[in-house]
Amino acid sequence: MGSKDFFALLVSRSVEIIDREGLRRKIASRRSLRVKLGVDPTTPDLHLGHAVPLRMLRSFQDAGHQAVLIIGDFTGQIGDPSGKLAARRQLTASETKANERTYRAQIGTILDLRRTEVRRNSEWFGRMRLAEFLALLAKFPLKSAWEREDFQARLRAGRAVYLHEAMYHVLQAYDSVAVRADVELGSLDQRLNLLAGRELGSRLGRIVQDVVLLPYLIGLDGREKMSKTAGNTINLRDSARDMFGKVMSILDALIANYAALAAWLPPERVRGIERRLKAGENPRDVKIEVAEAVAERYHGAAEARRARSAFLSLFSKRERDVAMPGVTLPRRAYAPLELLVAIHAARSVSDARRLLRGGALEVDGERIVPGGRTVLIRRGSVIRVGKKRFWRVR
Amino acid sequence: MGSKDFFALLVSRSVEIIDREGLRRKIASRRSLRVKLGVDPTTPDLHLGHAVPLRMLRSFQDAGHQAVLIIGDFTGQIGDPSGKLAARRQLTASETKANERTYRAQIGTILDLRRTEVRRNSEWFGRMRLAEFLALLAKFPLKSAWEREDFQARLRAGRAVYLHEAMYHVLQAYDSVAVRADVELGSLDQRLNLLAGRELGSRLGRIVQDVVLLPYLIGLDGREKMSKTAGNTINLRDSARDMFGKVMSILDALIANYAALAAWLPPERVRGIERRLKAGENPRDVKIEVAEAVAERYHGAAEARRARSAFLSLFSKRERDVAMPGVTLPRRAYAPLELLVAIHAARSVSDARRLLRGGALEVDGERIVPGGRTVLIRRGSVIRVGKKRFWRVR
């Protein structure tokens, strides 16, 4: 891909580029750019929301640039306040370390790790003295920390914001200086943090990074950004069958969005999907195609095809669809037993236990085991009990 | 002095005690308390404003308590934002070190340094790691840093506040934890910083310090707190004659205030002075008494008496007072040459230079030398040129 085409791809896949003209020139110079992406090891499971900037980083990599992946093992212990409604519990060093171990394998399904410079920010922050840090703080106005929209939202909601959280953007900014980033990638809610990196570079007379802001992936609930907290994720470690089933449960309005951000289909194919939907093609058929493309990204074509067949044989036969009763349930997470009782699929709690133990419960194509985690119920979720009983959540 | 009398003295000399009942009990326990006072070596000259908490610390010392004096050689490099209208220039380590050398001698005229635990806060902050500091920040709400009245005043005036300044109270608070302070002394504009020390002790489950807030000494301009920035100081290193002359230039309304805070006269003597003024005694006579008491505090009785005689022989003879012309001058700091020209005492600039070189210029009893510092002109200032020419500023 020529540098011109690559820049066009960047533009089409991002929400905002700062500064756009600067980045265009950097890319046209054909110099290998240092492209930074930071991830905090705050959860052991990465999901397709995390994958959006990772895919973009891979695109840079494929265009011959140097990917610099920062594992925020130091900052992860503070917790990025961006977009959060409450102060994050501070993780311990051993928690972040455990999470980090599971990261590389998951990230390796997207990035080429052999060509990636992986750094931990404890490398520089672990030995940083207070005096050095205060000198950094002197470069940042208190006002801009205070006026962050996420902080103000928390304060309006009567929740506290603590001083250490107001340091997060400073630390992330310094990461950029430490690795000499030419470009930083992040999602839209990271805007202030990434701009801080740009400003710090400029104030210290160092490299001034350009900023590529990427769209969010909306979660399975169709409302909130995909996140572990919202419990609306498709995880990188989900099986092909789970991925397929979960994509099938999204709102029709999100199909093109998932085609672009979850399946990471090329822009022209996404536009094709948009056209077909507009022309009146059955959204369900298009969704099946997107679901297969998502599963294929992470599990290969053969697995994706099998996931599709399994889904169709269970849920898609016309007769079943017609016979499927609707059930109205508050959309939230349920314990498996509780769910069986709520839809009146079991005559008693002990009956429900027996059903669970027998593997009779499936939600959106995923088998629910006894003692397993809670199940998120969404509009359109399909609940199966045994071979023949199906409910669709209204 | 009994512990009860000592507590009564504290109450009479302070503006606020937090918590008063707690401190009363601590003092009644007859345990030797650790009493903390912090000073930042941001200027080589201490003045009578600094002396107020130092005198109070001496009173604690005399009552058998342990004085802990903290030289803020680390925090001095940030600059206490309290009550400041602009971000303070950050001092270098060598500047704070140079200032610190002059401190001990000056402080030694008030405190008994042999019985004082003198600490520098670089002792703990110099080796503090970023991670430890962030753990401290997690104990403080962003809101209370933001809402500081001094910060808000600066922001309203369109001036910036930087993040490192919002750390000052955290650092001062940690000083209290580091030295296990039972009590901290400070002036009223230090209220938030001292309360932060109280809160941090409580949040860390350590000693909870009580707080004794002292009144300000108003400067020679009669308006602002005595401070180097306002240029309205009586310095600890001023000669007896300068101290005397400067006190003679204060507004009559401040006489009792100076009796209490500058001369540190016992409360009953201050009350006596208030009564005499109220009864119509000539304020000038009372002021002479207070001026002598101030000079005596720092230079002994003999020197103070000489300063008084010198002042009276120059300025106080009725005939001169009557013959002294008034001059209206904008009240500000003047270069010596400029001043001679402004009052038309010299026929030309070269004439003014000659007068200066000859030692002909005195303001408020202080000889002004050529190339010396600027001279603050106040309402009531007396300017002498040569032996016989006097002007009083209206």
Automatic annotation (TrEMBL), chains A, B:
Family: Belongs to the class-I aminoacyl-tRNA synthetase family.
Entry's transmembrane regions: none
UniProt KW keywords: Aminoacyl-tRNA synthetase, ATP-binding, Ligase, Nucleotide-binding, Protein biosynthesis
UniProt superkingdom: Bacteria
One biological process term in Gene Ontology: tyrosyl-tRNA aminoacylation
Keyword Transmembrane: no
Protein name: Tyrosine--tRNA ligase
Any single Gene Ontology cellular-component annotation: cytosol
Catalytic activity: tRNA(Tyr) + L-tyrosine + ATP = L-tyrosyl-tRNA(Tyr) + AMP + diphosphate + H(+)
Record-level Gene Ontology MF annotations: ATP binding; RNA binding; tyrosine-tRNA ligase activity
EC number(s) stated in the UniProt entry for this protein: 6.1.1.1
PANTHER family: TYROSINE--TRNA LIGASE (PTHR11766:SF1), TYROSYL-TRNA SYNTHETASE (PTHR11766)
